[in-house]
């Protein structure tokens, strides 16, 4: 989706909401990605639709909800909203304008996301002295059961890189022809991803002007808008350099500045990267869903650093984490491997006892 189209979607959502919500989104999320702003606008719209149908019965349009209405809400209204989020029905419109009703369900994660958007709005209104109290502090979030996501094993990483670098051994016919056309680009994409651990959003937003091949570095814009200089391993620099030379003619007609481009000359999308990765993973029989998504490469990068003894604070800095608690999730992956290695080295029963047979 082009950036201008995304801004159009954001305006479409905020136009449905009261002005103070638009002010909140602009004030709190300037610098965040447009996807984040759209997500919060959608989540707050769910809250306002709930208020219209379940609490503020005299309101005919959610745009007419006022700060005074928010100020008069009770803690029980928010607790009921949290329960409502498990399963609720809302009206939507088809392209032709027909009104249909859809049932939505949320996991604990989805509930917390929507509650977070609402809490952020209450914090904003309280800090700007538009409401007398932030009652969201009295509402607990849904309890999450953390699932440990899988990283690529060393063998899987080698297999994945082998098919990306040496696809001639794996493909034939039309698939081989297509592979050869994109080989230099794909090796540059995935070597950069695995070699630097940047986010997929940061990867696809890289521009040629962000590169400094003399210093082996490039600039990324992190979450929140901060910029950070990322230093490239030599192999990353070499694959990017080869890719740039190969695409010189095509770049005369592409979206200005984009480093990684699709065959039609447009900037790569997250969905495009994920599709590429899944195809390569399928070729080498990597099927676990956790391992076929782009974030698996970032997770693998982080866990490898920790296994190599890099301090967790440095890993957090390299990943662009402002909160080290986020990095601890990766540490849990590494820690699980360390626990496994320790247990496999244990000999609970000495061999001479284990192999002993009673004499007849």
Folded structure, characterized:
The protein has 360 residues and is mainly α. It has 2 domains: 3-138, DNA polymerase, domain 1 (Orthogonal Bundle), CATH 1.10.150.130; 154-345, Intergrase catalytic core (hpI Integrase, Chain A, Orthogonal Bundle). Helix content is 54%, strand content 7%. The chain is built from 15 helices and 5 strands. The protein has helices at residues 3-14, 19-29, 34-55, 67-71, 75-84, 108-127, 154-165, 173-196, 200-204, 234-246, 270-283, 295-307, 312-319, 324-345, 351-354, and strands at 87-93, 99-105, 211-212, 217-221, 227-231. The strands form 2 sheets. The protein has a 3-stranded antiparallel sheet, with no helix packed on it. Strands 1-2 form a two-stranded antiparallel sheet. A hairpin with a 5-residue loop joins strand 4 and strand 5 (227-231). Helix 2 runs antiparallel to helix 3 (34-55). The radius of gyration is 25 Å and the shape is elongated. The N and C termini lie far apart (78 Å).
